[in-house]
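Final report, results section. Input specification for complex C-07:
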Amino acid sequence: MGNCWREGEFMRKCMQRDDLNTFFRFMGLMGDRLPVYLGAILLSTIGDAGRKIANSYLIQSIVTAAQDKNVDNVLLPVLGNFAVFVVCLLLWRFGIIRYNIEGRTGAGKVEKLVFSKAMRLPMSYYEQNHSSDFMSRLIFDTQKASDIYTSRLRRLLAAVLSTVAYLIPMFYFSWELTLCMVGISLLVFAADSLFAKPLKKAGVRLSDKNKVMLEKLTSILSGMELIKIFPVGARLTQEYETAGREYYQIQKSTNRLSAGLESLNQMFDLIGTLAFLGMGIWFVSLGRVSLGALTALYSLYGTFRYAFLDIGQYLPQMMNCIANAEKLFAFIDMEEEPEQWTQEPVSDDCQDMGEEIMLSVRNVDFSYDSLGGGACNGGGKVLEQFSMQVRKGSYVAVVGESGCGKSTLAKLLLGFYPVGAGSMSIGGKAYRNLTLHEIRQLIAYVPQDPYLYEASIAENIAYGRYGASREEVIAAAKAANAHEFIIRLPDGYDTILGERGNTLSGGERQRIAIARAVIRNAPVMLLDEATSALDNESESLVQEAVRKLRGNRTILMIAHRPSTISAADVVVRVGG
Amino acid sequence: MVRAGFRNGYMLLLFILSAVGLNEIILLGNDLIAQAADGVLGGQQVDFSTFIIPLLWMIVLGTAASYCKSIFGNHYSAMVQRDVRASLGKHLVRLPFSYFDEKGSGSIMTRLISDMDELGRFFSEILPNLLINVIAVVTATIYLVQMDVRLIAVLFASYPVMLVVADRLSKKLAWLAQKLRSHMDACNEKAYDAIQGIVIGRSYNLYEVQKKEIDAVIDQKVEQACKSTRISSMGWVLKNIITTIPVILCYLFALYETMQDRITVGEMLAFTVILSRILNPIGDIVFCANDIREAGVSLKRIQEIDNQEEERTDGRIHTLSQAGADVPAIEWNGVCFAYGGSKEHAVLKNMSFRVETGTQTAFVGGSGEGKTTIFKLLCGFYDRDEGRYQLFGHPFEEWDLEAARSCFSEVSQNVFLFPGTIWDNVACGKEHATDEEVVQACKNANIHDFIVRLPEGYETLVGERGVRLSGGQRQRISIARAFLKDAPILLLDEPTAAVDVEAEQKIQEAVERIASGRTVIVIAHRLSTIRNAGRIYVVNGGKIAETGNHGELLERRGIYAEMYAKG
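Structure output:
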């Protein structure tokens, strides 16, 4: 009740040119469906306004009949206007359906554009921005911007168009009274916009305080174990209560403001209604207007007033959505990961590596500084003059102090980042001559904390190679020591994994990830050993799975445990 | 909650009074105009100046009533919410831990937060709107009854149809909206999933595949939206026709009554005006019913939490000096326990052990064998189903819960950090901790150096919007907390995630420092670090399977030796 106010802020804030450009660009995304979309808006608006106008004419004919005490000619206009009313409704329906289809399809287009963009950014972006943070912002902006298609634009246009549409018969009924009503509506409009700014400020303060309050409540609930053991319960409830009281105080002052606005509106409403009727009767007594026209005018005035005030409410909302669209465009215009980091072709000088060498890294320098903002270490070179050669079919363990070196090497091999200096090759081909797609096609990667998608286990494994059959999935799972536990699950391979694959233990997830790598059947297998949360038993199962894969593949294992190192053919030390 | 609603009831009463007042003023104004209209139509010379003064009065009073209505209604809502929050906050921390554990605090949280929102909406929007609508309809009805009973009879006779349709429609619309909502969620989840797993997506070249999947979900959503719009727009058309027909009938009947001279033309004018005023309220009352149904679910759930029994607060506060050093810190005899009391899924079956004061004791065993449950029972988060539990020589049920818990501090990697500064997070170990104490605790926990190197030092924010700390850093913060608390028994949940060698050393050092002179109980996930424990209990099948120190257990060649060989 109280917190709903009309924003008339646009009186001060004219449409900026940039906003207009953004708006046109956004509407442009609709492509050749735009005329149909706009036409549908027009049609639905005409239908809606027409039905209300028909209603007012219907009232006019009835009241006129009452005044004249003559019912002979009343049935025809009543039925006629009712027919117009129904036709207008059907027009409206036709328009609104088309409008919704076009609007939703347009919104879908925007979403597709945004989400596919979100998957094509350089890896550094994902490392620097927490996925849940930027995704929730992105989804919010997309929804807000799509609102332009699915509601905001129509509401605004409908309000403007129908305001004009209502004025025509109103002036026809009585231009003097209509002018007077428009004058009062303008006053209401001015009063509303006077309140808009302080109310908006209060709204921001309220939502800020609300956030604080929620945070305190969240602290209580998620810190329950701590509250039981440490003496913090009293403090936390105290904080929650204080935040609640502060919220209450702001609510109270906001209430005064919104009550002021509401009573002001009510006052104008009363003045409008009473003055209108008073003046109207006076006009009737002067014979300038019929009672029927007066009643019809009054019934239209109500609808006109709402439509008119809606303009003040919908325009700022539209502007807010355009601001979201602008953020969206900033996202869409971001640079994507290129097909290839550098395109200058180099001769594949394979003289120092015969057929036997699968991976070769020569004098590679790398630092996160060049990417703008480090993912770790803050600065300095992570790899300096690093070289290694890996034979085909060997099992190599990469070790080194915990820092960034080892995992960075894996990321460089996957082409997540361009190397600073030096060169790399895979299967005898220089990285510079390969597209990132080609490079990744040659590597099957198992990250330290493997992500499992919210899909069935079979689908998760099949992601390793597009179009893999169920038999191949099962074979891969067997190779990865995962088959046993999968078939013990109630839904077996069709078990849908929950958020972040939480229903499985660390070791089980790791083995599914290995199955995914196995099915890929790539010449190089790159594993970042899981360090976390593997109990002894699952750890040995994972290790056994890796051991089974030795032989026909080249395995590069980033090792954190001594037991892993002992199983490897070669140990490569990074850093230090 | 209901109590809060009644306690602030006087505000609601004031709100109702002002709403009634406002409506009466409007009706009075109508009456005045109707008389004037009749006068004019009757050919009288109407002196409009006699109308000006009462009209002005009405405007002034109406504005005042409107102000009161708004402010009383909103204040009522704010006051009820304030009271509910205050009592809920206090109540929540006194609930037994098991309540949160069983329901999963995450789900309680999301539910509670959305329920609180819904509660706010109920008191600030739904209830006042309902009251306003009812008041508008009732006052208008009373006015019309005085004018012509038959008019009101026609009006209400034609409405039941509309009520049924509106009710059906609102349910259908809610259902459609919910369906669309779930499509939207599915769509966002899919995109979210792809981005969270971007490392996999990128390294497996899944872009094309995932794009196709996401596009398909979006297309489904669009299709659903289009289907919804066909149904709902037809619904609106029907609703409009069905609501308009009674109105036209009312107008025609009013015309008939005028022709019969039962009402004057002025009254008919007033009737049409009032009709347009109460049409929307009548429709809204029906739609309100749906809102109330929804709010009712939330209110019921909050009520449910409200009705949950709080933890016991009886029991004695034992001081530890009464107990000699020879009294075991903890003694369990035949303890049985099952979550939710279901006998078939017992976690602990007849478990007995002793923890001597001042020694180190370790529990080992496979995952899911109930090691964590032992901790929960020790702290009194759950009550055992059978058996005896003595803490420092006193039966646990004689202890005051708070006092019993003050005997324990816990160190683990999964500690919860409150959104706030590091200082706050450490200082919560002890009430009224001084700056020196906090710094000293951090120094002891080997985390001080790390903290002061941060740009904002102890004032650095942690939690969702602050810096992310590694498992090792979290663990050291929990050690600092434990130092501050200075409890006689230390529960040590061994780290599961490996940290680098340097950090590991620092943690080890800090753990040794805090362990000295205390009774330490370790839950071990890996067996490398517990060799020094004085006594090791091997948990298997909810029972203690083997006991002894590292050497003894290896010699037994039992479960422990097997586990050790594997690791």
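The mean pLDDT of chain B is 83. Chain B has 19 helices and twelve strands. This concludes the modelling results for the funded period.
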